[in-house]
Every structure is written in structure tokens, then in C-alpha cells.
TrEMBL record, chain A:
Organism: Rhodovulum marinum
Family recorded in the similarity comment: Belongs to the CPA3 antiporters (TC 2.A.63) subunit D family.
Origin superkingdom: Bacteria
Membrane-spanning parts: 6-26, 33-60, 80-105, 117-136, 142-164, 171-192, 212-235, 242-263, 275-296, 303-325, 331-354, 375-396, 416-441, 462-482
UniProt keywords, alphabetically: Cell membrane, Membrane, Transmembrane, Transmembrane helix
Name of this protein: Multisubunit sodium/proton antiporter MrpD subunit
Pfam families xrefs: Proton_antipo_M
UniProt keyword Membrane present: yes
Gene Ontology, cellular component aspect: plasma membrane
Automatic annotation (TrEMBL), chain B:
Main subcellular localisation: membrane
Lineage: superkingdom: Bacteria
Protein name (record): Multisubunit sodium/proton antiporter MrpC subunit
Entry's Gene Ontology cellular component terms: membrane
Organism from which the protein derives: Rhodovulum marinum
This protein's UniProt keywords: Membrane, Transmembrane, Transmembrane helix
TrEMBL record, chain C:
Keyword Transmembrane in record: yes
Transmembrane segments: 6-25, 37-56, 62-84
Keywords assigned: Membrane, Transmembrane, Transmembrane helix
Naturally occurring in which organism (per UniProt): Rhodovulum marinum
Signal peptide location: none
Name of protein: Multisubunit sodium/proton antiporter MrpG subunit
Superkingdom of the organism of origin: Bacteria
TrEMBL record, chain D:
Domain MrpA C-terminal/MbhE, residue spans: 103-175
Transmembrane domains' residue ranges: 29-47, 54-75, 192-212, 218-235, 247-264, 284-304
Subcellular location: Cell membrane
Family: Belongs to the CPA3 antiporters (TC 2.A.63) subunit B family.
Domain Na+/H+ antiporter MnhB subunit-related protein: start-end pairs: 192-295
Keywords: Cell membrane, Membrane, Transmembrane, Transmembrane helix
Keyword NAD: no
Protein's name in the database: Multisubunit sodium/proton antiporter MrpB subunit
Coiled coil feature spans: none
A GO cellular-component term linked to this record: plasma membrane
The organism of origin for this protein: Rhodovulum marinum
Domain MrpA C-terminal/MbhD: start-end pairs: 15-78
């Protein structure tokens, strides 16, 4: 199918896998191997990008069989954007992890050397699974990939080894497993109805009870995995109690896998009706409001950030629902933009929150201040990420929200505009809680310590958060990439 | 009128097992019981898939669902092992702090 | 002739299994239950294997069935021993039968 | 025919009944045993549906190894033994109202699914015709093995990756736990192990070899060999030590690594990834299966054993 041998699609999946294997075999060299594997994967994705720009959608029939007997990989603009995003975040978080797991001291949990040794195999397995999901064109393969992601993500969530992290990790594991099993049963129903497993098989299928059951199961399962309100119960604790690089990966990437599959299902199949889409928007609204209120009430910085993930995921569902079933062929762009914006900003924000916690020794919001040891660059990164998540121009978040509201207005759905506005106000309110803390002098209780200067560890959050703001200026090219290979059919 | 074929019997039984597992996951209080309930869900989904191998009346069953279910079984034992490791570790830490 | 013998052995084996199961359910303590299980089910298994071996299409198949019998018998004897040993050490004493 | 149908009805009812009984058992030990019996009956059901490969996998992995894992965990929770009543207290679920609503919702959803199932078309062909057409080029003659290792080999590779991920996470979670003293099993067990383990190794090899043309294959063989290793661990024939760690890591990844390397290696010259040259397909599949079998066996045994063997050095990690 492609001139390059072996094809870059397979390499984007297998290179991180080889990296994970090598990092597991050589624990001491894990950071170097890990970063090398991420860079190699990014190179494969760059080659793939070149091919997609030239040829549009690329299919690779693995084993030469082709669908429906074999499994096909598929790459188009949407997949390419997600792949690039994931590589970018893995690189940023990986560099952040170098600093976060440096040193030998142990703070009540796992020894640092062990955390360092195990972070990389799990991170690379996660990358394998994520890239596998983006490139998959087969329902059962998506289920297996989701399980790869689940196990790696749970391993990352409990890396710190504290009781709180383990408890949250187990709850996460159960939610994730149940979601995957619902997806599996849904795949069974698809097979009953169509006799095939590839996504293309959904397209021609007649609307039937079995197919509705399949969609119902898969949507509920994926909603559980993406923590759509009210199935979000597992997310805040799991994301807040993980170590910072793990939180960044979980919040920025893992929840997006379910969303991406939802997009692909909506693209492929006869989506089960206007009402379901509206329901997704309504639940998204619930997430925006409930997540916002809980973020306002959170006492710890990382918990606030985690609740904001619940709210932001809700917003993405609102984006999907903004113009109804007919508007879906355009609404996916708004959703994709918000996915990209949230991923970059949230990765930067969690790394920044982790730095702040490392430097000042706690992350209680009521005691944040402008003390002399203040991690100024991390606070800057937090603020930049907040700008994008709130949606101030020219950030990528602004472009996403603008695109959401524009489509909603054109369809005359003012209620979705109101929801977006309400969510924006709430996000201003809860991020301000943290930001004002960064500016206060009157909370200093301990004697002023010497400013510790800037560390290399400040670079990844600043760069990621800066990108979250700056990429808004590149919205045109990003949209052009998303439209490569025309996902969701022709551009209206 | 629906013909009560062999596959239909096991398919419906599979759905019932999945439903029971679902109830267990939602209702069980203990960690082990929830995990077993999840395993029941997996078994139920597997039964539906294996029954799906017999829909059209061929002489031999469709091997693809068989392969899928074997994959599912291996995936499930992996997940079970991870969950059990978490349970054991949590138990150790909790009994340490409680005493 | 062989077919009749096979069926008869199978039925007899099933009868032993039923007896063993009744013993498992009705007997008062671990040791009695174990007695019922290992003895009756061992016999039942032997008969069922014999029946299956008679019905086997060729000698190789029959040999494999007999091997299965040998190993299941070994395993169940060992398992029975382990259960009894554990019960003797950890559990309550043998229940006295009152006249 | 009707007698068999009655048997199927009885078996299906028993399966559902055992699933319910498993969840209703008050004692955790009884619950696990019921779950294992459930797995056995399930395998019988799958044998009735002419899915012997799946039945084998279910008995060996779904019921057997899962059961062993569950029992080992229960022993840990109860402080070394299974009969002690302390530790994992089996409390009755609380909050009846929520429970009722949940049960009602799950029941309604299941009924809806049942209706949808009955409404599904009965005459849509599956992929069996495609499989039959492609079988001559697959390198093996057993369709399930062809699907697992050729047509959908990519899924199978990822399945082995899931196993690898599991053992990495288990090692990461459970480091440095003090070893629970293994129960002394006595001379009868030791004698049994001495006879049974070599035979089981042969049986595993046989399952692997026969998989190319008949039910069996890497997963069933790996499960049997994994059970051998578990028995070896229990009888103390196998004693994991810190020095074994590099070997263990190598064994865990061998299957995944070889599988992925072969998949990439055969590509090129107009061939896609995973597209084995027909002349070498059988050799390559057997090579992959052999490596995967060894990896699966080692991984399953490691999942049972749990913790990574480490020298207790820091002193911070106690029990």
C-alpha cells in the first residue's frame, strides 16, 4: 500500500512497543530508551504525515488479507492530528518525568528508582495502545487496544504507591474494565447483525434492534471510559492521586481514546438517532456544571485540575451535539479542536501542578502564595494553560469554543451557547482560585526561604502550556490537517 | 415465532450471565466479589460471541468468534491478575495503618 | 454389542457420580464427604472413561482417554489427600456419630 | 435431537444459576469455588457449541488460573490460610434502595438486550466463507489457529502485549512484599508433582504442536505449562530469586518481541506487515507460537507468584 517498508503506520504502533520491551529489560537505561523510542515514534509519524498529505487516507491491510477477514490500519487527517498530539505530549511529559523522578528520596510511597524504572515501560505501552486506537479500523481490535491502554493507565495511576492512589486505581480499573466489557458485548451484537468486525461494515448495516443494542452498549461503555457525567465517579481521585507525569498522561491522553472511538463510530455507522446525541449533549452539560462546581469546592490543586477535566470532557460532548445529527459532519471538527486544546493544556497544567507541589511541598489551594521559593515558571505555565482551558483568545481552547458556539448559533441551538458560556464562567471562577493564590503575599507563614532558581523541569510545562496558547494562531493549518482524507465525508 | 435453537439458548444464557455480572458490579460491596462479577460479564459476552458463530446454518461454526473469545479470556485473566495485585497491596497497606 | 456395553458403562458411571454427589451434599463432615467423592467419583470416572474408550474411533484415541483416566485419578487422589490433611490439621475434629 | 436440546437447556440454566449462586455466596471461599465450577460448566457449554479451543482455554485459563489467582489472593487477605475467618470479612451489601434500583436497571437493560438478540437476523453470513477461502494460504489447517496467528495476528500480538503489561504492573505494585510462607504440602503431593509435572510439560508441547491442525495452540499450551510452573512454585521445585530477574524479564518479553520482529521482518518487497511468505508460513507460525507459549507460561506463573523477587534491602518495606 505504501512505498516505505515497513509502513509508518505499523511503526507508529510497534516502535513504542519495542521501546517498552527494551525499557523493561534494562531498567537502569529506561529513561534514555524511553525518550529515544518517543523520538523514533515521532519520526515515524512525521513520515506518515508526509504520506497522508500526499495521498489522503491510507489503508494498510495487515497480513495482506484486507477487511473483513483481516485487520486494516487506517490513517487520515484526524488520526494524524491525534498521533502528532500524542507524540508531542509524550515527549513533553517524558522530559518532565526525567525531572519528576530524579533524586533517590522516597516520599511515603514507591522508591524513586523504581518509579523511574517502571514509568517508562508503562508510558510506552500506553503510547502503543493510544496509537493503536488512532490507527485501528476494526471494532474488536479497538477493544483489545482499549485493554492495553487500561492496564498501562492503571499501572501509571498507582505508580506512587500510596493508599489513596491504590484505592483510586482499583476503582479506575473496575470502571475501565466494565466499560471495555460493554464494548466487547457491543462488538458481539455488531457481529450478530453484520457478520463483520471492520468499521466499514457498520456503514451499510440496516437500522435494527441488534445494531441499536450494539451502539447502546458501546456508547455507555465508552462514556464510562471517558468519564462522561454521571459516570465520572472514578476520574477525580484517580487523576489527582497519581504522580504528576502520570496524571498528565491520564488526563491529557487516556480519556481521549474513548472520545476518539466515539467519533469514529459516529463517522462509520448509522448513529442511533437524534435523541441519543441530544442526551450526550445534556449529560455533557451536567458534566460542565457539576465538574465546575466541584472544581470550585476542591481543596487541593491537583483535585481542582482533575475536576476541570470532567467539565472539559463534558464540553466536548456538547460540541458533538451542538448542531444535531445533520450537523455532525461539521461538529466533529469542533470536538477534535477541543480534544487537542484540552490535551495540550491539561498536560502542561498537571506538570505545572506537580512542580508546584514538589517545590512548596503541598498543593492546598488555601495556602498557595507568592513565597520566595515560589515556582514562578510553573505558576506561569499553570496560568497559560488556564488561559487556554478558559478559552481566551488567541489560545487553541478559544478556537475550539468559538467553533462550538459558531456551529450552535448557525443551527439556532442557543442553549448550547449558553452552556458553553456557563462553563467558561465557571472555569474562570475555579482557575482564579488558584491564580489569585499565586499572587498573594499575606499567606506566608514560614520564614522566607531562598529562591531556588529555575530548573530544567520547568521547561516542559511552560512549553506545553505555551503551545496550548500559541497553537491557536495555527488553527488554520490544524483544521487543514484534520480534513486530510475527508473524515466524515465531503467538506460542506 | 422464534425457533429455539441451540445457539439461541446459549446466547440468551450469556446475556443473562452478563446481566447478573452487571448487577454484581453495581451492587457488590467487596472488592473480590466485584472482580468476580466483572469476570461473569466477560463470560457472558463470550457466550454471546460463541453463539454468534452459529447464526447462519453452516456445517461448521465460524472460527473468527472463537479466536476473539480466546483473546478475551487471556485479556480478562491479565486484568484479573492486576486487580488482584492491587487488592493484595491495598490490604497489606490498610491493615498496616489500621493496627 | 460394544455399543450396548458402552452405554451400560456410561449409565453405571453416571449412577456412581450421582451417588458421590448425594454423599457430598448429605454427609456431615469433611472426611465423610471426601470419602464419598473420591471413592464414588473415582469409580464413576473409570466407568465413563471405559465407555468413551470403547466408543473411540481408533486405538490412539482410546489410549489417550485411558491416560486421561490415569492422571485424573492420580490428581484426585492427591487432591483428596491434601484436603484431608488440611482439614485434619486446621479444622474441627471428626464429628462423633452418636448412636 | 430433543433430548440433546433438553440437555442444552439444563446446562444453560445451570450456568446461569451458578453465576447467580456465585454472586450470592456469603463466604468468599465458597464464592470463588462456585466461580470455578461456573467456568467448568461454561466450558462444557462451549464444547456443546463445537468450540473446543475456547473450551480448553476457558478450563485452563478462565476457570483454572483465574481460580488459582483468586484463591491465592484470598489466602493473602486471610493471613496465610483459606479457612481462617478473619481478614476478608464478607459483609452483606448495604443500602438496599440503591441496590434495588441498580438491580432493576441492570435487569431491564438485560431484557432489552435479550429482545434485541432475538430480533437479530439469523441468516447473515459471518466470516466463515472468507476463512475457508483463505485457509490454503494460511500455513496451518486448523481454522482457529489460522485466525489467531495469521488473519488476525495483529490482535493476538496485542493480546500478548496485554499479558506483558499485566506482569509489569503486578511487579510494580507488589514489590518487596514479605513472602507469605508457602504451605507444606507433604510427601504425597511431592510425589504427585514429580510424576505429573513432566507429563504436563509433554502435554503442553503436544497441545502446541497439534494446534496447527486440531484444537489446541499457543494459549492452551501456555496455560498448561503455566500450571506446571504454578505447581512447581507450590511444591518449592521452583524458587524465584533476585538472580532470576533478568531471565524472567527476558522470558516475559520473548513472545511479544519475536512476534513483532517476525511481523516486521516479513514485510518489504511488496509484502505487508504480518504477511508471511506462504512457503514459510507454517515455520514462522510455529516459531511465534513456541515463543509465545513460553512467554505465556512464564507470565501466568509470575502473575500467580505476584511479587517480583527482590532482596529485602531497604528495610522500609515490611510485610
Amino acid at each position: 500500500m505504501t512505498d516505505v517498508m515497513p509502513d509508518p503506520l505499523t511503526l507508529a504502533i510497534l516502535l513504542p512497543l519495542f521501546g517498552a520491551i527494551a525499557a523493561f529489560l534494562l531498567p537502569r537505561a529506561a529513561p534514555a530508551i524511553g525518550l529515544g523510542a518517543v523520538v523514533a515514534t515521532a519520526a515515524a509519524i512525521a513520515v506518515l504525515g508526509h504520506l497522508v498529505v500526499q495521498a489522503g487516507t491510507i489503508f494498510v491491510p495487515l497480513g495482506g488479507w484486507g477487511a473483513p477477514l483481516g485487520i486494516e490500519l487506517r490513517a487520515d487527517g484526524l488520526a494524524l492530528a491525534m498521533l502528532g498530539l500524542t507524540a508531542l505530549i509524550a515527549l513533553g511529559v517524558g522530559l518532565g518525568a526525567l525531572a519528576a523522578f530524579a533524586g533517590e528520596t522516597e516520599v511515603g510511597g514507591q522508591p524513586m528508582a523504581r518509579q523511574r524504572a517502571f514509568f517508562w515501560p508503562l508510558c510506552l505501552l500506553l503510547l502503543t495502545g493510544m496509537n493503536g486506537v488512532y490507527l485501528s479500523n476494526d471494532l474488536f481490535n479497538l477493544y483489545v487496544m482499549l485493554e492495553v491502554i487500561s492496564l498501562a493507565a492503571v499501572g501509571l495511576a498507582v505508580l506512587g504507591g500510596t493508599v489513596a492512589a491504590l484505592r483510586a486505581g482499583l476503582a479506575y480499573m473496575y470502571a475501565s474494565l466494565l466499560g471495555a466489557l460493554m464494548m466487547l458485548l457491543g462488538v458481539g451484537f455488531v457481529y450478530l447483525q453484520t457478520g463483520r468486525l471492520d468499521l466499514a461494515g457498520l456503514a451499510g448495516a440496516p437500522d435494527s434492534a441488534a445494531l441499536s443494542a450494539a451502539f447502546g452498549l458501546m456508547l455507555v461503555g465508552l462514556a464510562l471510559k471517558t468519564a462522561l457525567f454521571p459516570l465520572h465517579f472514578w476520574l477525580p481521585e484517580a487523576h489527582a492521586n497519581a504522580t504528576a507525569p502520570a496524571s498528565a498522561l491520564l488526563s491529557a491522553l487516556v480519556v481521549k481514546a474513548g472520545l476518539y472511538i466515539l467519533l469514529r463510530l459516529a463517522e462509520a455507522g448509522p448513529f442511533p438517532g437524534e435523541a441519543i446525541l441530544t442526551l450526550m449533549g445534556v449529560l455533557g452539560t451536567g458534566a460542565v456544571l457539576w465538574g465546575g462546581v466541584q472544581a470550585l469546592r476542591a481543596e487541593r490543586l491537583k483535585l481542582l485540575v482533575a475536576w476541570s477535566t470532567v467539565a472539559q470532557m463534558g464540553l466536548i460532548f456538547v460540541a458533538l451535539a451542538r448542531a444535531g445529527l445533520e450537523g455532525l459532519s461539521d461538529s466533529w471538527r469542533a470536538a477534535a479542536l477541543l480534544i487537542l486544546a484540552h490535551a495540550v493544556a491539561k498536560a502542561g497544567m498537571f506538570l505545572a501542578a506537580g512542580r508546584i507541589k514538589d517545590v512548596i511541598g503541598h498543593d492546598r489551594i488555601s495556602e498557595l502564595d507568592r513565597s520566595a521559593v515560589r515556582p514562578a515558571l510553573a505558576q506561569l505555565a499553570f496560568a497559560l494553560a488556564a488561559i487556554s482551558l478558559i478559552g481566551l483568545p488567541p489560545s487553541l481552547g478559544f478556537i475550539g469554543k468559538w467553533s462550538l458556539m459558531e456551529g450552535a448559533m448557525m443551527a439556532g441551538n442557543w442553549h448550547w451557547v449558553a452552556v458553553t458560556m456557563a462553563g467558561t464562567l465557571l472555569s474562570v471562577a475555579y482557575f482564579t482560585r488558584a491564580l489569585t493564590g499565586f499572587l498573594r503575599f499575606d499567606r506566608v507563614r514560614a520564614p522566607l526561604d531562598e529562591h531556588r532558581g529555575w530548573a530544567l523541569a520547568d521547561a516542559p510545562p511552560v512549553v506545553l502550556a505555551g503551545l496550548a496558547v500559541g497553537l491557536g494562531l495555527a488553527a488554520g493549518p490544524i483544521l487543514a490537517v484534520l480534513d486530510l482524507g475527508t473524515p466524515f465525508g465531503a467538506i460542506p | 415465532m422464534i425457533a429455539l435453537s441451540q445457539a439461541t439458548i446459549y446466547g440468551l444464557a450469556g446475556l443473562a450471565v452478563f446481566g447478573l455480572g452487571l448487577m454484581g458490579v453495581l451492587g457488590a460491596a467487596e472488592r473480590l466479589r466485584r472482580l468476580i462479577a466483572l469476570n461473569l460479564c466477560a463470560a457472558g459476552a463470550g457466550m454471546v460471541l460463541i453463539a454468534a458463530a452459529w447464526r447462519s446454518p453452516p456445517a461448521v461454526p465460524d472460527p473468527v468468534p472463537h479466536a476473539l473469545v480466546i483473546t478475551g479470556i487471556v485479556v480478562m485473566v491479565s486484568a484479573t491478575a492486576v486487580a488482584l495485585a492491587l487488592i493484595r497491596r491495598l490490604h497489606s497497606l490498610e491493615t498496616d495503618t489500621d493496627d | 454389542m460394544l455399543e450396548i456395553a458402552g452405554t451400560a458403562f456410561m449409565a453405571l458411571g453416571a449412577l456412581f457420580f450421582v451417588a458421590g454427589t448425594i454423599g457430598l451434599l448429605r454427609f456431615p463432615d469433611v472426611f465423610c464427604r471426601l470419602h464419598a467423592l473420591t471413592k464414588a467419583d473415582g469409580m464413576g470416572l473409570a466407568l465413563v472413561c471405559l465407555s468413551a474408550a470403547i466408543g473411540a474411533p481408533d486405538g490412539g484415541e482410546a489410549l489417550r482417554i485411558l491416560l486421561i483416566w490415569v492422571f485424573v485419578a492420580l490428581a484426585s487422589a492427591t487432591g483428596g489427600h491434601l484436603v484431608a490433611r488440611h482439614a485434619r490439621r486446621a479444622g474441627p475434629p471428626v464429628r462423633e456419630v452418636r448412636p | 435431537m430433543t433430548v440433546l436440546l433438553a440437555f442444552d437447556l439444563l446446562l444453560a440454566a445451570s450456568i446461569v444459576g451458578l453465576a447467580a449462586a456465585t454472586l450470592l455466596m456469603r463466604d468468599a471461599f465458597a464464592m470463588i469455588v462456585a466461580f470455578i465450577v461456573f467456568g467448568m460448566l461454561l466450558a462444557l457449554g462451549w464444547a456443546r457449541l463445537v468450540a473446543p479451543d475456547v473450551a480448553l482455554a476457558e478450563v485452563a485459563i478462565g476457570a483454572g488460573l483465574s481460580g488459582a489467582l483468586l484463591l491465592r489472593t484470598l489466602a493473602h487477605l486471610r493471613g496465610g490460610g483459606l479457612s481462617a475467618q478473619g481478614g476478608a470479612s464478607v459483609s452483606a451489601p448495604t443500602n438496599g434502595a440503591t441496590q434495588g434500583i441498580n438491580a432493576l436497571l441492570a435487569g431491564l437493560a438485560t431484557c432489552a438486550l435479550g429482545l434485541a438478540y432475538l430480533g437479530a437476523p439469523q441468516n447473515v453470513p459471518g466470516l466463515e466463507a472468507h476463512v475457508t477461502d483463505a485457509m490454503p494460504e494460511s500455513g496451518v489447517t486448523h481454522p482457529v489457529t489460522a485466525v489467531l496467528l495469521n488473519f488476525r495476528a495483529y490482535d493476538t500480538l496485542m493480546e500478548v502485549v496485554v499479558l506483558l503489561a499485566a506482569v509489569i504492573v503486578v511487579w510494580q505494585v507488589e514489590r518487596g512484599l514479605a513472602e507469605t510462607p508457602a504451605p507444606a504440602l507433604g510427601t504425597v503431593y511431592q510425589g504427585f508433582a514429580r510424576v505429573a509435572l513432566p507429563v504436563a510439560v509433554i502435554a503442553g508441547g503436544y497441545l502446541l504442536w497439534i494446534g496447527a491442525e486440531a484444537p489446541g495452540g499457543a494459549f492452551q499450551a501456555g496455560a498448561v505449562l503455566g500450571a506446571v510452573a504454578v505447581l512447581g512454585l507450590l511444591s518449592r521445585h521452583v524458587r524465584p530469586a533476585p538472580a532470576h530477574r533478568p531471565l524472567a524479564r527476558g522470558t516475559f518479553v520473548a513472545g511479544t518481541a519475536i512476534f513483532a520482529l517476525v511481523a516486521l521482518g516479513v514485510s518489504g518487497a511488496g509484502r505487508e506487515t504480518f504477511e508471511y511468505p506462504p512457503a514459510h508460513a507454517k515455520t514462522l507460525i510455529l516459531l511465534i507460537e513456541a515463543m509465545v507459549t513460553v512467554s505465556i507460561a512464564a507470565t501466568l506463573a509470575a502473575l500467580f507468584h505476584g511479587r517480583e523477587p527482590v532482596t529485602v534491602a531497604t528495610g522500609k518495606e515490611t510485610t
